[in-house]
Write a structure and sequence with these properties.
alpha+beta, 2 domains, three-stranded antiparallel beta sheet, transport
């Protein structure tokens, strides 16, 4: 897991209070968007539970004793959803998937890897894709299976892959 590089705003107490002025708030949310995506990429995480988020180092800077309120976390997640970088997993918007690449970007990354590594017309297990030695240097190595499946479904919709179930394994055939 890579170290998280905190931006200067992370040590600035007002960053943890949603700003009332529209222009300032827009800049604040953009900074949060970048921070959340960088954090999730560095930590290889994909799921966020809003109730637990305030206890994470991402939204709680203990060194300045500040944490972002839940309303702020939800505001940022909704902004990420508008850019294709997050998706609510329930109607109450309590659990989210966070994508440091959009699903379309993940689909393109996976397909490029399959083409470049000669894996078209071959079946790969999900384990091989996210845990295999041949993908150790790839951005999708360690990717959450739920995100992987959603990206592969995008490829399926384009006719570039087929998700396959066999025994207790899941795999994909790239075309």
């Amino acid at each position: 897991m890579a170290a998280v590089e905190w931006p200067w705003q992370y040590s600035f107490p007002p960053f943890f209070t949603i700003q009332p002025h529209n222009e300032t708030r827009a800049k604040q949310i953009a900074a949060w968007r970048s921070l959340v995506l960088d954090y999730y990429r560095a930590t290889k995480q994909s799921t966020l539970d809003v109730a637990e988020a305030q206890r994470s180092e991402l939204f709680n800077n203990s060194s300045i004793k500040r944490k972002l309120p839940q309303e702020g976390i939800i505001m940022i997640l909704e902004d990420l959803a508008r850019t294709g970088n997050a998706e609510a997993l329930d109607k109450q918007k309590r659990r989210w998937l966070v994508y440091w690449h959009t699903l379309d970007e993940w689909a393109n990354i996976l397909y490029s890897w399959a083409q470049n590594s000669g894996m078209t017309n071959t079946v790969c297990t999900f384990y091989e894709l996210v845990e295999g030695d041949s993908t150790a240097d790839e951005d999708f190595h360690g990717l959450d299976t739920e995100v992987l499946v959603k990206a592969l479904q995008k490829l399926e919709g384009r006719g570039k892959a087929e998700v396959i179930m066999f025994d207790d394994n899941q795999g994909v055939k790239f075309f």
